[in-house]
Design brief:
Radius of gyration: 23 Å
Number of helices: 2
Number of strands: 36
Largest sheet: 5 strands, antiparallel
CATH architecture of the largest domain: 7 Propeller
CATH topology of the largest domain: Methylamine Dehydrogenase, Chain H
Strand order of the largest sheet: 1-26-25-24-23
Shape: globular
């Protein structure tokens, strides 16, 4: 069997049956944290989890299927959100404000500085020498972190609502301001931030992400808002989620939304105590929703995974979404709904001339193949089964197009098309 045929066999072993609690998504790995995972950021081989009463947890995700905690720092407050820049993690620590944690040695994170914001720090974003903190009733606080050991506030803008989430792009900060919707704040002069525009979302704004000319706001669902003119944000589209959307991350044409269906609210400030009318659905549970935003005016759900905890935060890196899932810790979820392509033949610079055809038995050659990693996938990338060297019985599979995914002789993963017939 040639190297190309070997690659072909490789794709067949991946697919696994799809359960009722998922669509085009599969759980890859987990790491249970001791607190309530509320926020997450990913940088390099590590995920940084804001774990509420258990502070910051540093988790190795170099092998997402075997994620493991390598270090932690127990912050004095309640870790709600986290951002990572360079060798530092910036933790929105509830009543304890902003904490600056050195993660240059991930096994031994240590606090190097802090700034006690006036209210309850829910979210944080970092751009350049500044950390932007969503500080509940005290709005947006802009903190210089040019000297991480001595962070200092340089400016603030008191938004009309309760600042819950924050994203920064260019000269603007975008605030998910709870009942006051999306607020657009000019931060071109950090010492004198000013509101330049807003969009009053129909429900509570709890999370926000920005990509290109759009802001994606989480509430009772995902609202897509055009910010091509920051002074005049305008509604573009909406997709409702089963529970309240808290965490939003955007990668390519997809928005990844962490939604919470039934968790009792953690009471940070009075407005949460009196605003107990969340749009929960009795059977909504919680989890990850993958929403196509290739047409922003008509966002549509293309995948989901129901998680056992209370999903509040999400970050995306590569093929994986990292979900901060409350009492269930960190969940690593792969979205495969975009389908699978055959790996190009490097000798010709094209795909294979024709696919491999198998009937009843699929044979994997041992030579030049690292068969220990071989999987069979269906046409949309779901794992069907694992493959072993030699003969594999595929008589129980439906006829159709499959892919074999396997490492070739240089260790790189590759896909080859396979047609199963009767």
């Amino acid at each position: 069997m040639t190297k190309n045929v070997c690659l072909l066999v490789l794709v067949l072993a991946v697919a696994a049956p799809v359960t009722a609690d998922s669509l085009n998504c599969r759980l890859v790995g987990t790491c249970d944290t001791p607190g309530l995972a509320r926020g997450v950021a990913v940088a390099g081989n590590y995920a940084y989890v804001a774990d509420y009463s258990a502070g910051l947890r540093v988790i190795s995700v170099s092998d997402p299927a075997h994620s493991s905690e390598v270090g932690y720092y127990d912050t004095p407050g309640s870790a709600e959100g986290v951002a990572v820049a360079g060798n530092y993690a910036y933790v929105a620590d509830g009543i304890a404000g902003l904490r600056v944690i050195s993660v240059s040695d991930p096994a031994h994170p240590s606090e190097v500085g802090y700034y006690d914001t006036p209210d309850y720090a829910y979210g944080v974003a970092v751009a350049g020498n500044y950390a932007y903190v969503a500080d509940d009733n005290s709005g947006l606080r802009i903190i210089s972190v040019s000297d991480p050991a001595h962070p200092s506030e340089v400016g603030y803008y008191d938004t009309p609502g309760y600042a819950y989430g924050v994203a920064v792009a260019g000269d603007y900060a975008y605030i998910a301001d709870y009942h006051a919707g999306l607020r657009v704040i000019s931060v071109s002069d950090p010492a004198h931030p000013s509101e330049v525009g807003y969009y009053d979302t129909p429900d509570y704004a709890k999370g926000v992400a920005v990509a290109g000319n759009y802001a994606y706001v989480g509430g009772s669902g995902l609202t897509v808002i055009s910010i091509s003119d920051p002074t005049n944000p305008t509604y573009v589209g909406y997709y409702g989620t089963p529970g309240d959307a808290y965490g939003v991350a955007v990668a390519g044409n997809y928005a990844y939304v962490a939604y919470d269906g039934v968790e009792p609210p953690v009471l940070g400030t009075q407005h949460l105590r009196v605003a107990g009318n969340y749009a929960h659905v009795a059977d909504a549970s919680a989890g990850l929703r993958v929403i196509s935003v290739s047409d922003p005016a008509h966002p549509s759900e293309v995948g989901y995974y129901v998680t056992p905890g209370f999903a509040r935060g999400v970050a995306v890196a590569g093929n994986y979404a990292y979900v901060a899932d409350g009492s269930a810790g960190l969940r690593v979820i792969e979205y495969y709904g975009a389908g699978v392509e055959e790996t190009m033949n490097e000798e010709r610079g094209t795909m294979n001339v024709g696919p491999t055809v198998a009937r009843g038995v699929l044979r994997l050659a041992i030579d030049d193949c690292r068969v220990s990693n071989a999987e069979l996938l269906d046409a949309v990338g779901r794992k069907v089964t694992e493959l072993r060297p030699g003969a594999n019985d595929v008589r129980g599979l439906a006829p159709g197009v499959y892919f074999v995914r396997m490492a070739n002789s240089d260790g790189r993963m590759a896909n080859a098309k396979l047609i199963l017939t009767r």
